[in-house]
Amino acid sequence: MRLPRFLLPPKRPGWRQLGLAALLGAGVAAGQAPLYWWFAALPALSALIYLAVRSVSSGWIGFAAGFGYALAAMFWIVEPFFVEADRYGWMAPFALVLMAAGMGVFWALSVGLGARLGAGPALRALGAALGLVAGDALRSYVFTGFPWVLLGHIWIDMPVAQAAAYIGPLGLSLITAALAALPVAGRKPQVARIGIAAALLGVLWWGGAQRLATPDPARAEPVTLRLVQPNAPQHLKWLPEYRMEFFLRHLALTATPPEQGQPRPDLIIWPETAVPFLLERPGDGLEMIAEAASGVPVAIGVQRAEGRRYFNSLAVIDPEAQVTQVYDKVHLVPFGEYIPFGDLFARFGIAAFAAQEGNGYSAGPSVQVLDLGRLGLAQPLICYEAVFPQDIRRAPTRPDWLLQITNDAWFGDLSGPWQHFAQARLRAIEFGLPLARAANTGVSGMIDAKGRVLATLGMGREGVLDVPLPAALAPTPYARFGDAPILALILTLSIIIYRLRQRYRVDPGAQRV
């Protein structure tokens, strides 16, 4: 009995093809922060789609490309394992390979199944491109979500990113995939299709530039924020002989007088897990913070406990050293802040990286917005939470600005922290909200409601930024509707491509194009 063709295992392409696909995947990764080489990423993605739809197995090509993409874009994933190298260092190569293989599986399914939607070179190319966008969408939501280095992120530093205010990150991925697929949507690339893609990109670029040139609203009442960046290396941060030194460094930066002619800050912001004590057992810590702030409230990153549960939190300290508001991080980092089946893994000495106490953190009850009086409504985002626009949309009311505290010292200083900073810029664009970001070792900065960086402290620098808080824009279409319209469009286009396939009287499994 002969099995149907779709049940047969796919034939593996030659190693040369797989190696080329991996190199093309790395080329696509060059579009991500900190390089932003979109002019390299787009041609690499076009060549990848061209190779995939003409291969004996698009899925294998997708796997190799995704593997190369992840290695080039996310090699920083090994950095946390070397913070305590004697304990965790042996895991680093396994984590890197498994992470890259996981991305490869996403791309294998995306490219393989996408290419099979259509028949003929044009529809197969469009299907493969659409599959990549669907893969970005899937990766943004499943297994708690990991929307990092999406295809559309290559535009964050360019005017094209302004489209995210209307179509969000998945819409940017759809634009990227369409621009890459159009030149190769045929039996061979043609100058006419390349010209159409270039013209579409030009229109998007022009539209973004026009939005950036539109005058911004002014705040009704000026507000100045102080962002504190202590530059505490992660491998030293919690050592007994350094804990107090870094705490005193925070205090000294907090007490620094503003430059001549500059106003006093209205709020001082410390980064994530900035203090060496639990919120419930501060000793004299809160009084020391209030004294250094000299009458200015301070938002600090702090750990707190309830019984045997621990939380990664942000607390607001008033001038009388009283805790007025507390937010507990809701969206935790798997294996970084908590371990699934943590009690079992703890028997083997495997615990969450970021937790100072216990084997991990517990998630907070809900997304919150803090009422900071004349400073307006601020939505707190602790580290990883700035990666998820869907979580920001869950806020009970629209904030006036976004407040992110983070500790990116876990991820080295090459690309991981810059990619995280880029995501913060994209959130500002998507929601039309300014974002203040205080990071332990960098990148700290003030971002306006169009994603422009107004002031920044780069990696590995100690200091403060005294910066005015920009005004918010009107709610954006993306803030109102989220990813739903783009997800519906992905589904609709998939159905159209599949229906057009019915016009071809060919066997897609046997087709050679």
From TrEMBL:
Membrane topology designation: Multi-pass membrane protein
Location (main, coarse): membrane
Superkingdom as given in the UniProt entry: Bacteria
Ranges that cross the membrane: 60-78, 90-113, 125-143, 163-184, 191-208, 478-498
Keywords per UniProt: Acyltransferase, Cell membrane, Membrane, Transferase, Transmembrane, Transmembrane helix
Keyword Cell membrane: yes
Pathways per UniProt: Protein modification; lipoprotein biosynthesis (N-acyl transfer)
Function: Catalyzes the phospholipid dependent N-acylation of the N-terminal cysteine of apolipoprotein, the last step in lipoprotein maturation.
Protein name per its UniProtKB record: Apolipoprotein N-acyltransferase
Organism: Rhodobacter flavimaris
